[in-house]
C-alpha cells in the first residue's frame, strides 16, 4: 500500500500539478508519466461512481452535509449516509467546523485529487451522541474533537511508533479513501453527524471555547507538533512564522506560550499592528521589504513556513542562524525552489510536517487548555461558506472561519 501523501494520483497533500493540458508531473523527482486530463476524467468518474455506490451501501444514519460537486468548488446541500457504527465507533453530533486552506485546495481540485462530491471539514468539535459496545474512552455527552484523519492501519512501523499521521493507510477525514468500508470517499465535518473510531477521537479539555478550539484540530497540531519535534519550544529561542493565516497565527500563540521570541514574516503590512498588539508577536517583518529582511538575517533558531502559495524560500532560509531549522507545513500547488547555497554553508535543515499524531493532538489540546489558547475566529453560518471560501482565497480572514454547523446547517439546507 502506498502512502497517500506520497502516491501521486491519490495524494491528498502532494500538490499534484493537475493542470489542463499538462502531460507530466513536474519536479517530483521521479519520472512519472502524467495522464492528460482527457485521459483521466473517465477513469475518475468510474471510480467516483463505485465510491458512491459503496457509500449508498453504508446503510448507516442519514446525514446532511454541504458538498462541492466539481472543480468550481461551489458548496451546496448534500444528503448521504454515514457507515453503520462498529463496536469501537463514536457517533458525534458536529457543533463547529473550521475552514482550513486545505479544504479550499481540495474542493477546487488544485491538488488534482478531489473525489466529488467532496464534503470538506477536518477541524471538528462536537458532542458524543452514541458509542459502540466496545468504546471505553467516551460516553454520550462528552465534548470531543476530530482532526485531519480518522483511521490508520495500526500495524505498520509508523503506527507502532505513534506516528499514525505518517501511516501509508491513513484515512483522511474528508476526501479520504476508507478501504475498510468499501473504498467510500470520506465525508468531513461540514455535516450534522460523523462516525469515527474512538482511537482517532480527541478529548476537548474543559474550559476551552468550542468555536475557538475547532481550528486547533488541524491548524493547531500542524504547528505544535513540529515545534515540539525540532526543539522550537524552548524559552529564549527565536521562532520565525511565515504567513499569518490560520496556521501562522496559532504558531505565534504557541511560540509565545513556550516563552520564545516570535517574529512574523508576512506579505501583509496591514497585519503588523494586530500581530504585535493582539497576538503577542515580538517583531513583524514584511517579506517583500529587502531592508527589513536584511535586518533579520541570521537571527532565528527555527522557522515554520505556513504559506499556501508558491513563494521563494531562499530569502527565508537566510533568516536562520547556522544549524537553524525550517519546517515547511504549507502546501503550495507548485514546487518550491531549494538552492543548495541556502542551506549547505550554514548547515541548515529543511523538514516537512503533516499535522500530528493522535497523541500530539491530545497533548496540544491539553497545552492549549492550560494556557487558554484558542484561534481567532470569525464564526459563520453554513450558507456563508461559499463567500468564506472566496475570502479565504483572497487572504481576507482574521484568522480562521469556523462554521457554526449545529446552529445553522438545518436552516441553510
Ligand atoms: P491561510 O489561512 O490562507 O494562511 C496562509 C497565509 O499564507 C496567508 O494568510 C498569507 O499570510 C500567506 N500567503 C498567502 N498567499 C501568499 C503568497 N502568494 N506569498 C506569500 N505568502 C502568502 O491558510 P492555512 O489554513 O493557514 O493553510 C496554509 C497552508 O498549509 C495551506 O497550503 C494548507 O493546505 C496547508 N496545511 C498543511 C497542513 C499540514 O499538515 N502540513 C495542515 C493544514 C494546512 P500573510 O498575509 O501574512 O503573508
Ligand atoms: Zn487542515
TrEMBL record:
Cofactor: Zn(2+)
Gene Ontology MF terms: cinnamyl-alcohol dehydrogenase activity; zinc ion binding
UniProt record, GO biological process: lignin biosynthetic process
Subunit structure: Homodimer.
SMART domains, per the entry: PKS_ER
Coiled coil: none
Name of protein: Probable cinnamyl alcohol dehydrogenase
